[in-house]
Design goal:
Number of strands: 13
Radius of gyration: 31 Å
Distance between the termini: 70 Å
Helix content: 25-40%
Structural class: alpha+beta
Order of helices and strands: HEEEEEEHHHEEEHHEHEHHHEEHHHH
């Protein structure tokens, strides 16, 4: 057995060896190792030694080397047993490789690594990148494990989380929903569709006693979800998760900034500055750098700190200033759990806000009223 092959690619096959003419090559950002698989083979019919009849090259995905995608190009020996008294017709065979399943293009060790990574709290995209495969390959491996994971239909934790995510073209509507334990953040199940009809049929598989035991459901701000949750979990309190609350203000500020940019027009100083410092204006005040000053190209190389840049940007539009202060208030409320500050924010007159903030504030205020009534 070639110990180098075992060390690099975790393939244990004593007949596998490097191609002496070109063992390695780098091409278009990939590493390619050229290998040959050849050994003596007997005919399965007459048991005579078969003739070697050329090679068939296959391309196998294996682990990255130094974070560079790596492939194996393996020349597999072809064999032929010509017609004879023992063999009424020609018999052909092809060499097999221990560690790579026939007709597969991914090494067994890579498949095993994917399976191990799927047991960890990692995204499919990251697993695919680390193992030099596509996201669809990882998703197929995950689906193949579905028979091993059976959800207990007679148990749910007291607090659950529901959140939708893009599941891609593998499913009909491209969106799925994850069901989690809110206390330990462990995934209970992945629900194939986020549509209300499907969600209702899914949760009705749990017995009524189990659903009545749920006391808290964390979900986004989408109204149809809430009506369905009240029906399925009548004893549960519905809470909007922090992320979706912040997203409302975040989207409003982003939309306001873009409108102000377009109002000034491309090529203007204001448009360039608002575009260049888009990320800065979305940063929490508590994370701004107040101590360091740098020459800023958009402000005639004036030495400015991050807060001074934001102040100059806010001077470009009253609507932008209102949206920015609203967004910062939401960030402060969430990070400090300040209920009184939230009440003051929700008491603001909705008609005094810019149009971009109107829907965001209306949504938050409506959810607060629904919670107080419940």
């Amino acid at each position: 057995m070639n110990n180098t092959i075992k060390f690099l690619f975790n393939i244990e096959d004593k007949h596998l060896r490097f191609d002496e003419k070109m063992p390695f090559e780098e091409h278009n950002g990939y590493k390619i190792a050229y290998l040959i698989q050849s050994y003596e083979m007997k005919c399965p019919i007459c048991e005579k030694r078969m003739l070697k009849n050329g090679f068939k090259a296959i391309k196998i995905k294996t682990f990255p080397i130094n974070k560079t995608p790596t492939f194996l190009v393996i020349k597999k020996q072809k064999y032929l047993c010509k017609p004879s008294a023992g063999c009424p017709q020609s018999i052909t065979k092809i060499a097999e490789i221990k560690g790579i399943q026939p007709k597969h293009r991914i090494a067994n060790s890579v498949n095993e690594s994917i399976m191990i990574d799927l047991t960890k709290n990692r995204s499919i995209k990251d697993i695919a990148q680390d193992n030099n495969v596509s996201s669809s390959t990882v998703f197929r491996k995950l689906q193949s494990l579905s028979s091993y994971f059976k959800v207990n239909r007679h148990w749910l934790p007291r607090a659950i989380c529901l959140d939708n995510f893009k599941s891609g073209s593998a499913l009909h509507d491209g969106m799925s929903m994850v069901l989690m334990n809110a206390e330990n953040h462990r995934v209970i199940d992945v629900i194939k569709s986020r549509k209300n009809q499907y969600l209702k049929s899914y949760f009705l598989r749990f017995d009524r006693k189990t659903r009545l035991a749920v006391r808290l459901v964390v979900v986004d701000l989408y109204d149809p979800y809430r009506n369905l949750i009240n029906e399925l979990f009548p004893n549960a309190i519905i809470i909007a998760d922090h992320f979706h609350i912040v997203v409302q203000a975040y989207t409003a500020l982003k939309t306001t900034r873009i409108h102000v940019m377009n109002r000034y027009g491309k090529g203007t100083h204001e448009h360039r500055a608002l575009k260049r410092y888009a990320k800065l204006i979305m940063t929490s005040n508590e994370k701004l750098d107040f101590t360091h000053y740098y020459p800023r190209i958009n402000f005639k190389y004036a030495w400015l700190s991050s807060p001074e840049i934001i102040e100059r940007l806010l001077q470009m539009s009253d609507d932008l200033r209102i949206a920015y202060e609203y967004y910062q208030n939401v960030l402060y409320i969430i990070s400090h759990h300040d209920v009184k500050a939230l009440d003051r924010l929700l008491e603001e007159n909705i008609h005094d806000l810019p149009v971009e903030l109107y829907n965001a504030h209306k949504t938050l205020k409506r959810k607060a009223l629904q919670r107080s009534r419940s």
